[in-house]
Amino acid sequence: MSKVCSICGKGKQSGNLVSHSNRKTPVLFEANLQKVKVKQENGTMKSQYVCTRCLKKLKQAD
């Protein structure tokens, strides 16, 4: 299973680290994903990766 949010689809993002001398080093930024148990429609529990932004929205909805 890839590290992608199961709700919004957020995943890895590429960019550059820029030093003081303006040298660029390619780097991958990973989304802040947490493994959470989510209740399915049929009543079973399934663990999924959810980003913290979606997790915050889900907690506010409850």
* Full CATH superfamily name: Ribosomal protein L28/L24
Strand adjacency order, main sheet: 1-2
Q: What's the total number of strands?
A: 4
Q: What overall form do the CA principal axes indicate?
A: elongated
* Rg (CA only): 16 Å
**Would you identify the CATH architecture?**
Roll
Residue windows where pLDDT falls under 50 for at least 5 positions: none
Summarize the biggest pleated sheet. 2 strands, antiparallel
Summed over residues and divided by their number, the pLDDT gives a mean of: 92
CATH fold field value: Ribosomal Protein L24e, Chain: T
- Give the CA-CA distance, first to last residue: 28 Å
How many structural domains are formed by the residues? 1
Percent helix: 10-25%
* Element-by-element helix/strand order: EEEEH
CATH class: Mainly Beta
Number of helices: 1
